[in-house]
Amino acid sequence: MKTKVALARCREYGSEEVDRAVEKVLDLLGGIQSIIKPNSRVLIKPNLLTDSLPEECITTHPRVIEAIIRAVKKVTPNIYVGDSPGYIGQRIEADKVYEATGIKEVCRRQGVKLVYFDKAVLKKNIPLTDWLESCDCIINVPKFKTHGLTTLTGAIKNLFGLVLGAHKVKLHKEHLYRDDFSKQLVDIFGLVKPALTIVDAVIAIEGDGPGSSGTRIDTELILASQDAVAVDSILATVMGLFPLDIPTTKEAFSRKLGEANIENMEILGENLGEFIHSDFKLPKMSLVYCMPKPLFKLARKLTLHKMQVIRKQCQSCRRCIEICPVGAVSFKKDKALINSKECILCACCQEICPHKAITIRRSLLLKILGA
Ligand code: SF4
Ligand code: SF4
């Protein structure tokens, strides 16, 4: 049987439009009743990277979460919403993110419990939130964005947010390169296996996402499937890529955790071809990571490619220092400074910087290639 993926056009974040699109994708998959058992305990996991406003489109839009809550209420009142934003470990900081992103207001309005990921359960030595044990299933609700290290942050990458805040830095440190880190992400996906993934792809982030350095692009889509690998394969197609160009998709597909062949999918609702952006801007870093490891190392050694702080934009918030897994960021005259000899180009600092103050100086090699 073919893997079902449902698509619904959604042009903007008006509540009626989003409700209609979420209902449509669920109906196309056979209804929420066919996926979630009555009275089960459901954890809804958005992507709440940082304390940005919904209109910045860096986080899953609260209207998408609200539409999903409304749909899930038809089968169960036991609904929980939570994330471990960015690399933040403390409840008080997570609370700031819940407030700014509009998720707290949605949960209050819908009478749903907002939860904090501050206690871990070890699964194969990975410290994941203990809410995984308290709930029967997860609804994964990523935001469609580019990512410097993994090219795409979608269904599989969103589950990294189930790792407790401070441990994310440690995991990054232990898996420095793209392929190693992607394997780690797929390990987490293999442990968690969400019951359903619904993507907020109404307005996506292209270019140097997933944070404030990326740019918004109207992709006008809500999509859903019980197969997260298939979801990421569709997102890659929308980006004008092949599904296996995304390292997490390639790894998950090789482990037979889901479908990556579009021809083996039953695409329901809309025509996928209408959503493909052949000029979708990829993150500059993803081009570097296409190089084989030895060449990548050589490129770094020759300092052909560097992360850089734009001093006039730096607001001295120190988030980049806290997040850097190798301690490559320091402060000089009240502004962040990156030591390129230490930097492993993981892009975490760029991801977390709220002021577009971290950029990538393109390598000579990429300039020659015209990338
Ligand atoms: S570079 Fe960005 S994250 Fe780092 S201190 Fe400056 S504003 Fe904050
Ligand atoms: S400076 Fe930024 S890109 Fe470099 S290792 Fe630290 S967090 Fe990663």
What does this entry show, briefly?
This protein is α/β, with parallel strands linked by helices and 371 residues long.
Give a verbal description of the structure.
The strands form four sheets. Strands 1, 2, 3, 4, 7, 8, 9, 10, 11 and 12 form a ten-stranded mixed β-sheet that branches. The protein has a two-stranded antiparallel sheet with strand order 5-6. The protein is of the alpha/beta class and 371 residues long. The longest helix is centred in the middle third of the chain and has 15 residues, at 178-192. Helix 2 runs parallel beside helix 4 and helix 8 (178-192) crosses helix 10 (247-254). It has helices at 15-28, 62-72, 91-100, 103-110, 131-134, 155-158, 165-174, 178-192, 228-238, 247-254, 284-289, 293-301, 319-323, 348-352, 364-369, and strands spanning 3-9, 42-46, 79-83, 113-116, 120-123, 126-129, 137-141, 143-147, 151-153, 196-207, 214-225, 265-269, 306-309, 329-332, 335-338, 358-361. The chain has two domains: 3-275, LarA, N-terminal domain (Rossmann fold), CATH 3.40.50.11440; 291-369, Alpha-Beta Plaits, CATH 3.30.70. The structure holds iron/sulfur cluster (2 copies). One iron/sulfur cluster binds at residues 307, 323-324, 326, 328-329, 338, 343-349.
